[in-house]
Amino acid sequence: MKTRIENDSLGEYAVPETAWYGIQTARARDNFPISGRRPDRDFIIAHARIKVAAALVNARAGWLAQDFAAAIVRAASAIAEGQHHEQFVVDRFQAGAGTSHNMNTNEVIANLANVELGGIRGRYTPIHPNDHVNMGQSTNDTIPTAIRLATLAKLSRLVAAVHDMARAFTQLGQQEIDTVKSGRTHLQDAVPTTLGREFSAYAWTLARCARRIQDTATDLSDIGLGGSAVGTGLNTAPHYAKQVCTELERLTGERLRPAADLAAQMQSMADLGQVSASVRGLALELTRIANDLRLLASGPRTGFAEITLPPVQPGSSIMPGKINPVMLEMLNQVCYQILGQDAAIAAMVQAGQLELNVMMPALGSALFDMFDWLTQAVIAVTHKCIAGITCDRARCQAYAHDSVGLATLLNRAIGYSAAARLAQESESSGRPISALVREQGLMDEAAFAELVAKAARGVEP
User: Fold this and answer.
1) Which residue has the higher pLDDT, 317 or 386?
2) CA-to-CA distance for 389 and 168, rounded, in angstroms?
3) Which of 423, 379, 459 lies closest to 159 in space, CA to CA?
4) Are residues 428 and 387 in the same domain?
5) Is pLDDT of 461 > 60?
6) Which of residues 135, 153, 173 is at a domain's end?
7) Is 49 contained in some domain?
8) Which of 135, 162, 194 is the last residue of a domain?
9) What is the value of pTM for the model shown?
10) How far is residue 268 from each of residues 223, 261, 338, 354, 357, measured CA to CA in Å?
11) What is the pLDDT of residues 361-379, one digit of tens each?
């Protein structure tokens, strides 16, 4: 590979000849061969937009020459539009705070802008990565701002995916609202309910999770850009923080505010911890729902088999015809991984010291993974599983009318103790409650069936 030699405060270093990045990026790439994972796409875009906003504000203040600003804006905008992402080569686990990524962005933009202006990549004239691209900025305010902006972009996608899943459950709930089935508590027979009520409850729970995640966007929208190194606004133009926030609102479409305390948004990552906690809450509910659906679909002969999941692939390499609940199994695995990422984020949120939290690169990466993995999992499960669920109404009805839990319906008529004896007789003899009720002259079979249906629908007998 042909290289060019660049210089920094540590001396000379070889950089790939065709690379748009420069010496600090090359050093970091070689220093951190850790995960093999490059920066998140939304994060790259968010950071490039920060460079656009900063150049515009600095030019307006007269700090940055108009032609320099225009070249920087064009280069950074190209990155924000998806170009040159292969030039972002620093591992996600890197120097604390994200200085390596910040310089990766600065160098790529500077080289693109200089070549446009007739310069040579790697020479950094007339535009310098630090003096011009990074003007009025620090790693310490650009990186946490980029993490928050990237998270806001991902948040809207996850919320939309969860609402889609909730709608699929709502549709199933409406479709099966009158499908009477046995309720189960402690995995034992309980009073009757309907399949529709179970599905509708899932929809309501998911909508509440989506609302809780959406609510965290308010705190995320407080950005610390303009605080520079420690929140004092050192080396920033007059009114920079407010003006750069306005530019970012235009570029991102998000409703943003300069944080009332710029230093706090470098010290504290509590808002990111809260976002993570809300996604963890969703993952816990999704795990529970996935496990319920796997139980309801268990069988087809020796399990509940009240619902059937759409087959998406053969389930066994040795057992012909076996179909497994693979989409829900995948969702469980993703949710468990989310719990691990949330635990890591919690540890990194509390690891900040004095003016800065240097764990931001890994913290941001974990948060991005949570959103991306869960969004894709929810979309896949909604379309490949939930939307295709079918229900065995006859089996649900048979279980409902054979359930020992039906004795509870007689509490008001014969009392708890007599109903308990009836349940015990049904369990020991294997005969249904309905038959015992008829034989003992408590109620005819049709009346008891109507009582079961009313109880399942939540209607007072």
Assistant:
1) 386
2) 10
3) 379
4) no
5) no
6) 135
7) yes
8) 135
9) 0.93
10) 12, 11, 22, 10, 7
11) 999 999 999 999 999 999 9
Is-catalytic flag, 429? no
Neighbour count for residue 332 (Cβ, 10 Å): 18
CA gap 108, 79 in Å, rounded: 9
Average pLDDT over the chain, rounded to an integer: 95
Please state whether the peptide bond connecting residue 16 to the residue before it is cis, i.e. omega within 30 degrees of 0: no
Is 66 inside a domain boundary?
yes
Neighbours of 440 (CB within 10 A): 12
Strand, helix or coil for residue 184: strand
CATH number at residue 96: 1.10.275.10
41 and 18 assigned to the same domain = yes
Tokens at 103, concatenated: 């310089």
Handedness of CA 55, 57, 60, 62 (dihedral sign): negative
| CATH classification of the domain holding 422 | 1.10.40
> Measured between alpha carbons, how far is 151 from 170 in angstroms, rounded to an integer?
28
Going by the DSSP 8-state scheme, the letter that residue 310 receives in this structure is P
pLDDT of residue 432: 82
- Same-domain status, 98 and 156: no
What is the rounded distance in angstroms from the CA atom of residue 259 to the CA atom of residue 256? 9
Q: What is the CA radius of gyration of the chain?
A: 30
Phi and psi torsions of 314, nearest 5° = -60, 145
Q: Which of 77, 138, 298, 316 is labelled catalytic?
A: 316
User: Which residues touch 254 (CB under 8 Å, ≥6 apart)?
Assistant: 149, 152, 221, 248
Element housing 8 (H / E): strand 3-8
pLDDT by residue (tens digit) across 239-296?
999 999 999 999 999 999 999 999 999 999 999 999 999 999 999 999 999 999 999 9
Domain count, the chain: 3
pLDDT tens for each residue of 409-437: 877 777 888 878 887 888 888 888 778 87
pLDDT digits (tens, 9 = 90+) for 35-46: 999 999 999 999
By residue range, what is the domain housing residue 432?
A: 403-457
- C-alpha 64/C-alpha 57 separation (Å) is 9
Main-chain dihedrals φ then ψ at residue 222, nearest 5 degrees: -85, 110
Q: State residue 412's pLDDT score.
A: 77
Q: What type of residue sits at position 108?
A: V
Same domain, 193 and 293: yes
Asked whether residue 347 falls in the same domain as residue 198, the answer is yes
Average pLDDT for 127-139:
98
Count, residues in the chain:
461
Residue 398 is assigned to a structural domain of this protein:
no
User: 293 with 325: CB under 8 angstroms?
Assistant: yes
> What are the structure tokens assigned to 250, written together?
């235009």
442, pLDDT greater than 70 = yes
Least trusted range by pLDDT, from 115-124, 229-238, 351-360, 447-456: 447-456
